[in-house]
Amino acid sequence: MTSRQPLATLAACTAVGLGALTVAPAAAHTLLHDTQSTRTASAGYAETHRAQPASHSTADGRESSRETAPEARLGDAAGKQPDSGPQPETTAPQETPTRPPGELSEKAPTASGVAPGKAYAAAAEDYAYPAAEVSTWLREGSTAAGYPDEKIVFLTFDDGPTAQTPKNLTVLRDHGVHATFFQVGKQIDDSTAPIVQEIIAQGSAVAIHSHSHDYTRLYPGRRASAERIGRDYDRALAAVRRVLGEDYASTAYRYPGGHMSWKNITAADAALAQRGATWIDWSTVNGDAEPASRRPHDVAGQLDRLAQRRDAEKNPNVEVVLMHDAKNKQLTTQALPAIIEHYQDAGYRFGIIG
Ligand SMILES: [Zn+2]
């Protein structure tokens, strides 16, 4: 299976694509290009993307208290973002797992279709790219080595697996495209293992988005703890491998809150690099995790937010789209067909990061 677009389609659609990505000046403050605006936008993102309820965000940061905290439950990282308050799912009773999150029964399946040493099935190799390469393209733009001469979009979903994930997978399958799912390790257990396996079977990629998704633990005082991030990564990797097998490996890591949001992060980057992983942020968002005051509330609003990027001149061909498959992100699933068709119409092929 391939997502390559015919060359004629690419040529015909290039102008459309660039036009669609023209930046709206009013949105410049939310964009992520230069250092100053990155800090501004990212601080807001981290604040609103906080996975843990404020009542648990005490400053002690002790691992032991975190391990037993009531928020460490299945689906929590995805479902309790304060910016999602108006949505009814945030107040619905949480499902109670039969065992601690991240732990699987002995009979949990370990065989999968994942290619040895990869984060995706062998059939997906044709459209898979290492995280280090994609990250460089975002940072350096068209002057980067190996920068593609065709348009490539990487749809990414953070905060799964949840019950919302299969719904997004169905939309992707119906459109014949693929995405990268950044998984929260503690949400992987017997009940969600089939979802993780379906991501691979569908031709998409499974990447890591921490085990705990706990800002206080990973970034005490908003400063990245390389030691904690490394250990947290190891736990998440183990959780994925219990589902996909020991052959699973990913080059891609997405920091909860984004790399751009935290101080003192160089040592954490190195800790990830020692584990073969590279952080990857994004070039645009559908806005599904923004504060309620500016979060899009309909499909058209999400499409409009996608177009609000200002580095299109520097980086005309590579788009990494941040979205979420937390279980209260139904609007994202509703918008996904239009988002996919937007990029198809603009001549993009669909890549995965693995
Ligand atoms: Zn997240």
UniProtKB/TrEMBL annotation:
InterPro entries: Glyco_hydro/deAcase_b/a-brl, NODB_dom, Polysacc_deacetylase_ArnD. The keyword Hydrolase applies. Residues 59-74 have a biased composition (Basic and acidic residues). Residues 38-113 are annotated as: Disordered. Residues 151-351 form the NodB homology domain. Residues 1-28 form the signal peptide. Keywords: Hydrolase, Metal-binding, Signal. Gene3D superfamilies: Glycoside hydrolase/deacetylase (3.20.20.370). PROSITE patterns: NODB. Residues 86-97 have a biased composition (Low complexity). SUPFAM superfamilies: Glycoside hydrolase/deacetylase. The keyword Signal applies. This is Polysaccharide deacetylase. It comes from Brevibacterium gallinarum. The lineage of its organism: Bacteria, Bacillati, Actinomycetota, Actinomycetes, Micrococcales.
